[in-house]
Amino acid sequence: MQKGGAILGNAMRHVVALVQPGISTLELDSEAKKYIEAHGAESSFTKVDGYSWSTCMPINEQVVHTPPAKQAKLKKGDVLTIDMGVYLSGYHTDHAVTVVVGGDESGKYTPFLQAGKDALQAAIDQARVGNRIGHISQAMGSIIKQAGFTVMRQLTGHGIGKELHEDPFVPGFLDKPVEKTMKLKPGMTLALEIIYSMGKSPEIAYENGNEWSIITADKSISACFEHTVALTHENTLVLT
User: Which secondary-structure segment (H or E) carries 120?
Assistant: First the structure.
């Protein structure tokens, strides 16, 4: 997973560097696939039943699982999430970032995206042996709430390993007392993920005419940041 995660992290940097107005999300997906395969790995997402792309590429109010498309040409100021996974030697890793196409000159989205980065870092800081899932969830949720944004409650982080999605669920908010959540143990590998929006509603909906794609019900701008981590007795490794 450490080897696969390193390939995935580099693949993400490669794809993010290509993001510019006028490029289609399908072109970016093709670049992701080529990079992953050139480094001896496979795309995790193509192993999902019925999904034939290497990435998910939600734009603006699209939240997760949006397939890349030839007609989805990026415009300056679009808020783009790039989500991808790598499968190597029987194990998956998962990683996502959100960027503003062409840069955020106005600063309109800077606090929004910074809140997600901060929430993910707080989650990583809490993901250590002896803590609980609730410590991770509480850390993420409180940062997003304090910044004035909203966690999409039906979408969560997850365990990861031989399968892309495994137990346990890792919510982006605390939904029960911390002491009633699962204790973190050595050997756990988790995809920590904060999925949130600029709106006030946590509700999601399926996009009309777009199989897979989930959007914010209130059509507000959405973002996602995700890293795969591994817990050891000594420390927590960020694999991606």
Answer: helix 110-126
pLDDT at residue 195 tops 90: yes
**Structure letter (DSSP) for residue 202:** -
- The string of DSSP codes covering 126-166 is H-STTSBHHHHHHHHHHHHHHTT-EE-TT--EEE-SSSSSE
For the chain, the domains span 2-238
pLDDT digits (tens, 9 = 90+) for 199-219: 999 999 999 988 899 999 999
Extract the tokens encoding 76.
């300056």
User: Which residue from 9, 15, 59 is spatially nearest to 34, judged by alpha carbons?
Assistant: 15
- What token pair was written down for 59? 């734009």
DSSP single-letter state for residue 183: B
Digit-coded pLDDT (tens) for 142-179: 999 999 999 999 999 999 999 999 999 999 999 999 99
Distance (Å, whole) CA 119 – CA 149: 12
Q: At what angle do helices 133-146 and 110-126 cross, to 10 degrees?
A: 160
Domain at 2-238, CATH from 3.30.70.3550, 3.90.230.10, 3.20.20.60, 3.30.450.50: 3.90.230.10
